[in-house]
Structure formats: C-alpha cells, structure tokens
Recover the amino acids of this structure.
C-alpha cells in the first residue's frame, strides 16, 4: 500500500500542489474539510497531512489554530508554496463574453487588479479547485474561474491570463502533520519549535512570559493570539521560535514561560524550510 498525504480541498488545489512538491513519493488524498484531513492521519488512512497555516497576503488560516491544539497530531515539517493564480474558461468560450469569475474568497481578493481591469463580477466559491471543477461541469461560457495551473490541466480548462496575483510575494506556509513526532536533534539546525499557551490571569503575565526569550537570546518568529471557548477573557497564543528545546537557552526560556502559563503544549520541533533562509537573503540584499 502506498503512503498517503491528506490535504483539504479538491484535486488541483494549492494544497495538492504542496503535497506533490514536498512529498512526491506519497499519494495525495483529498479531504472535504480540515477536520477530515486531521482524522485521516489520526485513524491511519494517511501517514501525513499538508495543512495551510498562514499566507503572506491573506494572513492566518484561523481554523487551524483551533484544530491543532485539540488534535493529537504533531508538526513534523513545514513547506512554503509561492501561490500563482490563473484565469481560466471552458475551451469553447469567447474571453470577451465572460462576465463573472468564481473562486475562493482569498483568491478573489488576491487578484483584484485583473478582476477590475476586465470588469468581472467576483463570485465566492468554496475553494479554487472546486470553482474550476464546477466550471468544467457547467460549461458556462460567461463564467471564468481563478485556480491553479494544475486545476486547469485536471479539468480541461483554457487559461486566458496567467499569474494574475496582485502581489509577487504571495506565499502560503504549510505545516506537515503526523500521528507521531519525528525525532529532530538540536544539531539539525536550523530548527523551528511551535507551541501554544495561555498565560495566567495576573498583571503583566504575557510580558513576563515573553521575557525569558529575550534574556536567553531566543528568536520568536511568530506570536499570534486568538479567543477560545467563546470567552473574551480567555486568550490562547500560538508561537514559533528558532531553536530546539534541548538547547540550554531554549530550555531556560521555555521554563520561564511555563511559570507564567496555565496551559502549554509543544506542537512540534522540526527542521526549518530552506525558504526561510531565502527570505532572509532577499531582505538582506534589499
């Protein structure tokens, strides 16, 4: 039986492309929802899941911050995918007679310039690949879809404008999930550690909790807060840091964090994607 990697979406989705890029030896397994993708790994139907966590234009994928801490899965890797959007129609359609464009809300928002230039009416669909599939089924000549090049190939659509995203830096970061953690050594640098926590309900708790990372020289690359359990007073934080818990400075910072938290869970320690170093080089030469 071949190894499988689950993703949310239909064939041709950007998550599908990420699976093909990062795990060419795994069979991509499309799932209807993020919950289904998580469950496929938890129940052994798939060995891994490729899950988007944030985008350089649209921001974080909010559902994932709630699903990750509730699951028993572990982050074992990350993958950065430059996102390119294509405008497509059915092959027999006349581009001049297209009146509407269908896609995921984020894709529509990331391609405003071309949509406005062509005077198209944006229509929100469940996802990009789903919009392409629906177009291939309806054969509506007045309708276009925004999706990936792979989706155009899968559903037999004709691309009339390529790479129409407004921002060239449009990139989605994915985390790779597994039912069991994969051993990463402190020597396997660069390493990322991801965790979630809630601070104690005392004055300046967050400030004090974060102090350990500053005094121990640990670089925190991401810190996001979000409400939990419908409470405006109960805030959970999601964080990424550079380093391994086995390193002395990271261990000391985490110990100080734990002193000021009511809940702390490490979601995974894994090798950093080479894309991080590429970004640093670009910024350094800018």
């Amino acid at each position: 039986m071949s190894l499988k990697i689950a993703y949310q979406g239909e064939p041709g989705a950007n998550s599908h492309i990420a699976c093909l890029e990062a795990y060419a030896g795994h069979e991509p397994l499309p799932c209807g929802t993020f919950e289904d993708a998580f469950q496929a790994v938890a129940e052994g139907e798939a060995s891994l899941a490729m899950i988007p966590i944030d985008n350089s234009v649209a921001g974080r994928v909010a559902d994932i911050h709630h699903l990750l801490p509730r699951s028993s899965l572990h982050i074992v890797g990350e993958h950065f995918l430059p996102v390119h959007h294509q405008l497509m129609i059915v092959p027999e359609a006349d581009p001049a007679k297209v009146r509407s464009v269908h896609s995921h809300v984020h894709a529509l928002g990331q391609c405003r310039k071309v949509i406005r230039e062509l005077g198209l009416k944006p229509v929100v669909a469940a996802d990009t690949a789903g919009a392409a599939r629906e177009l291939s089924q309806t054969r509506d000549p007045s309708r276009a879809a925004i999706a990936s090049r792979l989706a155009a190939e899968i559903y037999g659509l004709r691309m009339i404008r390529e790479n129409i995203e407004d921002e060239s830096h449009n990139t989605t970061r994915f985390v790779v999930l597994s039912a069991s953690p994969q051993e990463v050594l402190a020597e396997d640098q660069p390493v990322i550690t991801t965790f979630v926590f809630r601070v104690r309900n005392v004055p300046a708790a967050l400030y004090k909790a974060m102090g350990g990372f500053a005094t121990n020289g640990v670089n925190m690359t991401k810190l996001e807060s979000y409400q939990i359990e419908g409470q405006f007073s109960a805030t959970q934080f999601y964080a990424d840091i550079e380093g391994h818990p086995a390193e002395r400075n990271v261990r000391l910072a985490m110990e100080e964090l734990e002193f000021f938290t009511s809940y702390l869970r490490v979601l995974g320690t894994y090798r950093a994607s080479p894309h991080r170093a590429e970004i640093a080089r670009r910024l350094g030469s800018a």
Observations:
- The first strand starts at residue 4 and ends at 8.
- The CA atoms of residues 101 and 144 lie 5 Å apart.
- The two ends are 48 Å apart (CA to CA).
- The chain is about 30% helix and 35% strand.
